[in-house]
Specification:
Elements: E1 8-10, E2 25-28, E3 44-47, E4 56-59, E5 62-66, H1 71-74, H2 88-94, H3 100-103, H4 108-114, H5 120-127, E6 131-135, E7 142-145, H6 146-149, E8 150-152, E9 155-156, E10 163-170, E11 177-184, E12 191-199, E13 205-210, E14 217-221, H7 227-237, H8 251-270
Parallel strand pairs: 1-3, 2-3
Antiparallel strand pairs: 4-5, 5-10, 6-7, 6-10, 8-9, 11-12, 12-13, 13-14
The structure holds flavin-adenine dinucleotide.
Flavin-adenine dinucleotide (FAD) binds next to strand 2, helix 4 and strand 10.
């Protein structure tokens, strides 16, 4: 929709050209969220795509993903040949059930900064234990672990005028084995529960829970737990009133699906599943 309070579009080509942050400013990436609501408080958009960041780069440190990388670009990232995590990218991108028009515009940064419970990019980066680079308004940069970026529903650690610059998937996590489960109330619906389990070569197991809780949750174990220990850990981490509640699923059903998926993921990885 038209944002009829916006009177300026700023398109910086470098960080220096961004200039001071002003009241009424908003970062613009793909615009699929920003242009979905009236946003009467906005007067200027700062278009991050003008900065021309390369979408993806494979470096010795890992896969460097620009915040402006679109979901379409992320579906088949350049990874080392045979990297086990390759299939997790299309699985997570497909969990945002937008048509191709949405996926070619929607960015990973926009998805993380919007911080909906059903943000599939949050599931991806938390499961892969990625690190985020932020650019504070005052200059310099700071790093934050993926699991710490989203604080709650539509709340992140970003301060006013701070932006998400990039996401690094560490090279040491390219060969994680993984298992993925997702459910929604209908085929094209928003995720009600999306879980990813990862198993490292040294036996460490992590379970990432999203969509059924307001913010992503990651449970780490030194080894694959038995079913009882896994369910106990979920219960300890998520209080009875900690399940997300909206039109996309009742809390009790989300809890049941989360428990079922956690057990399925544990079994799949214990048996040496597909990925
Ligand atoms: C049909 C449809 C289905 C959708 N399904 C889902 C879904 O299942 N799950 C889901 O989570 N979302 C969903 N969305 C919402 C949206 O498309 C995605 O969250 C998308 O990834 C947002 O990215 P964007 O680049 O379009 O963000 P924008 O609209 O450009 O920005 C969104 C917000 O993030 C801020 N922002 C963007 N980039 C940065 C940055 N680098 N640093 C700091 N702030 C930034 C903006 O200022 C704005 O506040 C859906 C949308 C549609 C239309």
């Amino acid at each position: 929709m038209d944002l009829n309070t916006v009177s300026a579009l700023h398109r910086p080509r470098t960080r220096d050209e961004i200039g001071p942050w002003q009241a009424g400013d908003a970062w613009l990436a793909g615009g699929t969220v920003l242009f979905a609501d009236p946003n009467p408080g906005l007067s200027r958009l700062i278009d991050l795509t003008a900065l021309g960041w390369p979408a993806l780069a494979l470096t010795p440190d890992g896969l460097d993903i620009a915040a402006t990388c679109t979901l379409a670009e992320l579906e088949e990232p350049l990874l080392p040949p045979g990297a086990r995590i390759a299939g997790l990218f299309p699985a997570c991108c497909a969990a945002l059930y937008g048509a191709f028009k949405v996926r070619t515009a929607a960015t990973i940064g926009g998805n993380l900064c919007t911080a909906l419970a059903a943000a599939p990019m949050a599931a991806l980066i938390v499961a892969l234990d990625a690190r985020l680079t932020l650019w504070p308004a005052a200059g310099g940069s700071r790093q934050v672990a993926a699991a710490d970026f989203i604080l709650g529903l539509q709340r992140t650690v970003l301060a006013p005028g701070e932006l998400l610059r990039s996401i690094l998937v560490p090279a040491c996590n390219m060969d994680l084995r993984w298992a993925f489960r997702r459910i929604a109330l209908n085929d094209l619906g928003r995720s009600a529960a999306l879980l990813i389990g990862t198993l490292a070569a040294d036996g460490r197991f992590a379970l990432t829970v999203t969509a059924s809780t307001p913010r992503p949750l990651r449970l780490d174990f030194p080894a694959l737990p038995d079913t009882a220990a896994l369910l106990a850990a979920l219960d300890a981490a998520i209080p009875a009133d900690g399940w997300y509640d909206d039109v996309h699923g009742a809390p009790a059903w989300r809890r049941a699906m989360t428990q079922l998926f956690a057990q399925q993921i544990r079994s799949e990885l214990a048996e040496g599943g597909p990925a």
